[in-house]
Amino acid sequence: MSATVYDAKIAASHDGSAEVLLTIKHENGGLTQVPLDYFAISMLMESCQAESIEGIIGTNWDKVRDAIQASHNR
Fold first, then answer.
1. CA–CA separation, 52 vs 12, rounded Å?
2. What is the pTM assigned to this prediction?
């Protein structure tokens, strides 16, 4: 088992724009919060074929990481 998306909520970023705040649950039970900008969450939802942010719950960390990298490299 690897880290997975445990929760997802819409939040405001430091500049006031909307982002999605993911809670990642690790194998040892630890929780980490990871913010995703619009581009990253769009990429993640597309890769998961999710129609809402609730559809990404349970997604493996690898897909989250790939979406963050795609957002960073655009």
1. 18
2. 0.89
